[in-house]
Amino acid sequence: MPSERILITREGETFYVRDLGKDYHTKHGFVKKEILGMAKPGTKITTNTGKEFFVLEPGFTDLYRRIKRAPQIMLAKDLAVIISETGINNKSMVVDAGSGSGASACFLGNIAKEVATYEIRKEFAKVAEENVKFLGLGNVMIKVKDIYKGIDEKETGLIVLDLPEPWKVLRHAEKSLKAGGFIVAYLPQITQVLKFVQALKKSKKIMYAKTSETIQREWVFEDKIARPSNIKIGHTGFLVFGRKISS
Ligand code: SAH
């Protein structure tokens, strides 16, 4: 049984309890360790000030929201599109670079059979390693290596690139991808998109498939309020997809 819980209020405020052996303090008062230790997932507990919390076992997304962030991470809205467009599953071998905080590697690791993630900076590889451990993923392998110099993995189904010059990976991707496999570059600048699309169009083995941008808008429902949220995520990045068609 996992030794961690989340406490969630009716309003959706969420607290993560890593150690059930200690009293847990929140701004709504505290919960005694004796109560925390006994509370089954799906039950309700009350703090000393009378605030009610529902007890749940944390799922992947609860933990994912709490990972450490070193460089900027890829957001779930963009990763979700990569997963849906490429159809990766528990049989897929995936390559990811750069690891950064390991967010994309972990998100893909939750779906794929195995993920090899490349990072040139040791200090970031360490953060990624901590996040992989925190999420309990045994299938994400971190490599302190420059992906511009080569990809070790063969017969890969997907290569995700979140780094400044993805066109430098193209000739390695041509060898690493299996026929039908995808390469996806996540790029903040349209100038980078143009350069990568041109490189894909020149490749004899990988075809250019499509470019998209994902805009996600949340809505607020409170009393008489029922409208789009005025807090919005601005631009993150474009996704450029290529597919290996010829071995
Ligand atoms: N996808 C990550 C964030 C990556 S940030 C996440 O979701 O958490 C970009 C990372 O690419 C940086 O950490 C940078 O050090 C790394 N990087 C840049 N060039 C690289 C290269 N040639 N090989 C491997 N990693 C590289």
Description of the molecule:
This protein is α/β, with parallel strands linked by helices and 247 residues long. The chain has two domains: 5-58, Vcp-like ATPase, Chain A, domain 2 (Roll); 63-244, Rossmann fold (3-Layer(aba) Sandwich), CATH 3.40.50. Helices cover 25% and strands 32% of the residues. It contains seven helices and 15 strands. It has helices spanning 33-38, 60-64, 76-86, 103-109, 122-134, 170-176, 190-202; strands at 5-8, 14-17, 24-26, 29-31, 44-46, 52-56, 93-97, 114-119, 140-144, 156-161, 177-187, 206-213, 219-222, 225-228, 238-244. A seven-stranded mixed beta sheet has the order 9-8-7-10-11-15-12, with helices on both faces. The chain has a four-stranded antiparallel beta sheet with strand order 2-1-6-5, with no helix packed on it. It has a two-stranded antiparallel sheet with strand order 3-4. It is elongated and about 65 Å long. The termini are far apart. The model has no long low-confidence stretch (mean pLDDT 95). S-adenosyl-L-homocysteine (SAH) is lined by residues 71, 73-74, 97-98, 100-104, 118-121, 124, 146-148, 162-163.
Compile the SSE list and pairings.
Layout (H helix, E strand, L loop, with lengths): L4 E4 L5 E4 L6 E3 L2 E3 L1 H6 L5 E3 L5 E5 L3 H5 L11 H11 L6 E5 L5 H7 L4 E6 L2 H13 L5 E5 L11 E6 L8 H7 E11 L2 H13 L3 E8 L5 E4 L2 E4 L9 E7 L3
Parallel strand pairs: 7-8, 7-10, 8-9, 10-11
Antiparallel strand pairs: 1-2, 1-6, 3-4, 5-6, 11-15, 12-15, 13-14
